Amino acid sequence: MRLAATSTLALAAVLVAARGDASPNFERDVRPILKTHCFPCHGEGDEKPKGGLDLRLRRLIVAAQTDDGPVLVPGKPDQSRLVENIRSGKMPKGEKKLSPAEIASIESWVAAGAPTLRPEPEQLVQGEITPEERAFWAFQPIHPAPPPAGTDPNPIDRFIAAEQSAHGLAFAPEAGRAALVRRVTFDLTGLPPTPADVAGFVADLAPDAYERLVDRLLASPAYGERWGRHWLDVAGYADSNGYTEADSVRPHAWHYRDYVVRSFNQDKPWDRFVREQLAGDELAATAHGRTGVIVTNDFVRENLVATGFLRMVPDGTADGPPDQNLARNEVMAATLKTVGSSLLGLTVGCAQCHDHRYDPILHADYTRLRAVFEPAIDWKSWRPPGERLYSLYTPGQRAEAERVEADARKVDGEADKLQQELLDAAFEKELAKLPEEIRGTTRVARNTAPEKRTEEQKQLFKKYPSADTRFALDLFDPEGNKKVLAKRAEATRVRGTRPAEDFLMALTEVPGQVPETHRFQRGDHDQPKETIGPGELSVLAPAGTTNLARWASVGTHLPSTGRRLAYARWLTGGSHPLVPRVLANRFWMLHFGRGLVNTPGDFGRLGERPTHPALLDWLADDFVAHGWHLKRLHRLMLTSRAYRQSSSNEASTRDDPENRWVARFRMRRLDAEAVRDGWLAVAGDLNPAWGGPAVPVALEPSGRVVAGTQKRDGNGDPAGVDSLGADAFRRSVYVQVRRRWPLTVLETFDGPALNPNCEIRASTTVAPQSLLLMNDDFATGEARALAGRLQREWPGRVASQLRTAWTRVYGTPPGDRDLAGCLDFYNRQAERFRGAKPTVPDPPLQALSGVCQALMSSNRFLYLD
Amino acid sequence: MGLGGLALAWLLREEGLLAAPVRPELQPLHFDLSPKPTHHAPKARAMISLLMIGGPSQIDLFDPKPGMAKWDGQPFPEEIHYDNAAEASSKVLASPWKFHRRGQCGMELSELLPHLGTIADDLCLIRSMRTGVNNHGQSMYALNTGRITAGRPALGSWLGYGLGSESRDLPAYIAMASPHGAPLLAGDCWTSGWLPGIYQGTLARPTDPRILNLDPPAHLRGAPQQAQLDYLARLNSEHLAEHPGELDLDARIRSYELAARMQTAAKEAFDISGESDATRELYGIERDETRDYGRRCLIARRLVERGVRFVQVLNQGQSWDHHGSIVSALPSSCRAVDQPSAALVKDLKSRGLLDSTVVHWGGEMGRLPVLQNDRGRDKCGRDHNTHGFSMWVAGGGLKAGHVHGATDDWGHKAVKDVVMHHDWHATLLHLFGLDHERLTYRRNGAELSLTDNQGAKIVPGLIA
Questions:
Q1: Is residue B344 part of a domain?
Q2: Which residues make Cβ contacts (< 8 Å) with residue A831, sequence separation at least 6?
Q3: Residue B168 is part of which domain span?
Q4: Is there a contact between B154 and B162 (Cβ–Cβ < 8 Å)?
């Protein structure tokens, strides 16, 4: 930490000095331009530089000649081909030319004598990272500045206020209490507050009422279901393998989902949470074939299930992919993309084939990262998904299962024996029908396997087909066949008494199996180049070595390489520049609707820069310094004035529609799960059952994907849906995530697109959403469910039904005008239904359903303010 | 302030990214899809984009290079840039397919696209396209949103923003998904980016029903549902009054209005059962190979006929990315789309719609003149070529029976009359009566446009 800080300061000093004399230099002003536009042909890559011109060092440029003269004459731009070629547009060769500003930078540098900041290296190392690249903000150590001065007690607000005043904005007043309780309840639990919750909070005038509300919500099991879902987006959670059209189901993935939900509810420290997910197997010192009896060892089980994080990407290797080796390597590529975007906030995938074009991530760096995971994701010794499951049998259950299987096999044997006896008897009967002289040859022929029969024997059975009594006992001896079938059914029944076997999906290594990792030329696994060991990206590696000293310090006692554990420890050790920032930024984004870095998966040059860098660092540091506890960070953010302010601030809406300066609470639509779960909750249908196997989804003939059991036709194609009863009303986090068949309600409202994971959700406003809320069985069904409940609660009392409907949906009771409007609509609609042809059954129920549906479809319900 | 914090803030300021705040001018906080006046008289009023993401091989389809035959299998004699894909080789791969002169204009087209040849006289074939970027994703962003980075509005959203809609009953912008899966970039193909949400593309499902939930429950059909929607509109407008300037709330109110009208209109528009046998045959709907694409092309025509501004017909992933087995894979890709694409142009023409409808057919890059994956004739393919590719466009005021631009002797690099993606966009907007430098949207204090200060130039050579 200290070392890194010093080097940053030294670097800053270098840059300040350079800027101080105002003269241009190669490293800062020229090289970044050349790297983006020119290095691909003139310096980087496996091929020789084009035209023999390497632009990576000033001295190489000065030494180079072209047919038309020297490339660079210091002090003489007009005699330098470099300048001439970029001015004329001859270079770069593509259509993407340098901008006038870029050309000017190079010109003025040449004119100034083409100076460098410091002596250039003797040897050019392939993929060198310059101090200037290292100086990019995201790679700097996290160093929190104290919050600015101010009267706000919450430091967050002082950071925010400082930027606001610089932008001519100020906080909006605090939101109304009803809006606030609805906002924070949906935010933390994904569910609406009950009317009692709202009334209770509105009436609670104690100074700490809001803090207690936040604490209560954080303690609710629904919190983990909500925030766990956020992490499942980033992890790319799916209950199916994707990749091929088959999209085979992962029946055991839910253990990981439950682990995530549980971890959030337990407020598991994130350093541990991340370590478990990246290297739980190594934390538990297990490996493939050495997991032991998982079910009786909580520590091993919890750690193994955590590695499900690394099993979430599409994996089509068991589904007959067109190119098996490619499919395997794509599992690795997707895994690195998930790790990169979720934890590093970098698009490491862009370095899969060559050095990253924008960020200082080398092709070799990508390979280093690959080597961390390769012992577990080894494309040369592949284990398809089915071989990455670990049984949850107890020893007793296993013994019982073996006993049952032995019993069943015994019954199978009896059935086989009986069947043969009966077939033999049938044969004798058939034989008796044949002419005496051919019976002997027929007997021989029958006892010869069909593929070994001579032509004569085949002809024999063409003539006397009924004599080939080898199968189809039912045709020869129906009664006897029934006895055989009864035996077979008995075997099946016996097998059915086996204890149900459940499995964990986990990532492990095979002891002793340590593949070499090669850099793949152009990312092609068929063109392996040099071997590269595991390590961190060069630009992030501490103390100037990618081969972290820590690699060696784990592993001697482990059955596995320990690479992921070492890597996970480095990531969560507190000095990693990106992991805490990336996490803190994500949490902020989820609360405030916009990240401090609004490209949460890309903190690199193509990503956005932080709007509040000092706040980001302060939050990241605070998170780490206080034990990586997310609930603490939630409290800090949620109790801020920034979070509690009203959504109304005219100046902010007008001047800062995206709310970069956080001068209002930005109104936002409920996300997909909150829409569905919110409808279920206000309708009274929500089934709050916790965890367990996924609620299945099925395809309706209408094209909708709903919660239900799939009926299938003779070809195995979907043919209707069987209802699930109350299971269909469970929270969305428990509904099966089929990559190919996302639940229609969720997909329509921008559920996560998993390719392979989802860093940030879209929030669209399109007509199919409106059509769903108008016409979909889910919407009409839930509206009717609420209406039915209201009628039963307030029989015959329409005004009370309507008042309660409004209160349940919005959390607060209607005003007089609201109620009058409601009643007016109700009356007209009921009247219309009474006079309808054909007759509408139960006009009052239909009218009340219509009111409920309108309320639940309205913006007041769909948006948080 | 800690020294590290100082360094970080300082570094960012050095980048010029913490620049002094800019107070944007006020802009109207109301957006709608009512028809808008154009900058000049338009020639085109609608567009159908047949996206062939992945990089259809120009050398095998559109850009004959007979001189390559004698080099087949020989080392490529010039410098070549392999980009970043696998299995590079320097062996020339002359096109194994024949080209023929088609139509009165004599445009040379590959035997792989026999139906396209029948409309050669309607085509404007551009043989000199470039985006200047290498990767599929970035190049798609360039062609679809004007720049290589994510987050910007798609072309169709710009047209909706600039021109409004000619249909009150259907979305202005409809994307038609492939039954084989999502296209590369998925939702970013039809995103409105930072333009208001009402300009987003609406995704139609790959199979019937193309739009879900068009049928109200029986008892709500007609007046009762309208009454319910009126009540909902009242609730929403009262809510909006409490939150002035919130564009999303406004967009959702409009989306309910549109949805109500779509119930009948979309059903009718997407229903091809009333089309004649001759039309179905024209589009290849009766044959397995062309059924899906034929249906989607026919629906695209029906949508444009009904006033939809922009229709995107999408392929799966980057299915034209023929790195291997090009000998079998390219013909199969062509067979699925050739007849339907040609049928669309013929059908629009026979209905008098081609003059005002731009049809676009193409991907985001081309392929190299050398082979890739040198493991036999049936296995080999072609790597990406970012230096020149072909696409064809037709109708909407574009030249017909015309070939624009050329590549070098190898079909490798565009060398004559190069058309960058932003030049194409500027030209396209011009056809729609819009000036690409004046069609702007103000965001964070900057005027943003589709062509976005990339030096875009209208290409007069494309315009009839």
A1: yes
A2: none
A3: 29-213+272-462
A4: no
| Contact yes or no for B1 and A145 at CB 8 A | yes
Strands B46-51 and A709-712: unpaired
Partner-chain contact B224 A850, CB within 8 Å: yes
Cβ atoms of A620 and A584 within 8 Å: the answer is yes
**H or E stretch covering A683:** helix A672-683
C-alpha to C-alpha distance for A68 and A354, rounded to whole angstroms: 32
CB-based contacts of B121, cutoff 8 Å, min separation 6:
B103, B104, B105, B107, B400, B401
3-state DSSP assignment of residue B392:
strand
Does the pLDDT at position A221 exceed 90?
Answer: yes
Cα B378 from chain centre: 31
Question: φ and ψ at B406, to 5 degrees?
Answer: -155, 155
This model of the complex carries an ipTM of: 0.82
Residues of chain B neighbouring A610 (CB-CB closer than 8 A): 12
Residue of A nearest to B132 (CA): A95
B20 falls within a domain: no
Q: How many domains does chain B have?
A: 1
- On the question of pLDDT at B15 being above 60, the answer is no
pLDDT of residue B182: 81
3-state secondary structure of A524: coil
Q: B205 contacts in A (CB within 8 Å)? A: 703
A128: tokens are 């060198």
Closest chain A residue to B24, measured at CA: A655
Tell me, what DSSP letter sits at residue A357? S
What pLDDT digit, counting tens, does each position of A55-110 carry? 888 888 888 888 788 888 888 888 888 888 888 888 887 667 788 888 888 888 89
Q: Cβ atoms within 10 A of the Cβ of A758, count?
A: 21
CB contact under 8 A, B248 and A769: no
Q: What is the pLDDT of residue B443?
A: 72
Q: Measured between alpha carbons, how far is A52 from A41 in angstroms, rounded to an integer?
A: 10
Is the residue at B76 inside a domain? yes
> Is residue B4 over pLDDT 70?
no
Q: What is the CATH number of the domain that holds B351?
A: 3.40.720.10
Question: B259 in a domain, yes or no?
Answer: no
On chain B, the residues whose CB falls within 8 A of the CB of A524 are: 85-87
